[in-house]
Amino acid sequence: MKGKRASRLRVEDAVSAGGVVYRQGKDGIEVVICGRTRDGVWGLPKGTPAPGEALEETAVREVSEETGLQVRPVAKIGTIEYWFVRPQEKVRVHKRVHHYLMVPIGGSLDQHDWEYDRVEWVPLEEALRRLTYKNEADILRRVPELVREVESRDHSS
Q: Which of 27, 72, 74, 106 is deepest in the core (most CB within 10 A)?
């Protein structure tokens, strides 16, 4: 019994925030995705809050750093949750990632930081195929309806 107890993993909670940056392209909605060629991962930009930082502020800062774009949040998309293990530390992490819909207001993709080596505008349907993680694709599937709501709200004000 003692051996089983010693091998148990400690559980930690973790929070991140990020976003989906969108624009209207010639064939519909385009979004920014970030990729690492060394491991073939494609994802949405996100990161960990600094001490005292609100989640929306974290999302803006992290998206700006990882994409090179200056962004403005226009709506909350939703939150995803997942678990992963850090075996060397014997920790099982329960992570929540809060996503915001954002529009670009400046900057350039070629100014992105070191975390990803590829940052691209792609049509929404292509992004859905390329994203590595299903839960991030689920976030993207909410984007068309939110864009309609945001753009109709902006046009009526």
A: 74
What proportion of the chain, given as a percentage, has pLDDT over 70?
Answer: 94
Q: What is the mean pLDDT of residues 81-90?
A: 93
Nearest 5°: the CA angle 22, 61, 23 is: 10
CATH of 16-156, one of 3.10.350.10, 3.40.50.1100, 3.90.79.10, 3.30.460.10: 3.90.79.10
Residues 6+ apart with CB under 8 A from 130: 33, 35, 42, 122
> Looking at the DSSP assignment, which residues form a beta bridge with residue 102?
21, 73
Residue owning tokens 């989640």: 55
By C-alpha distance, which of 11, 13, 23 is closest to 48? 13
Higher pLDDT, 121 or 111: 121
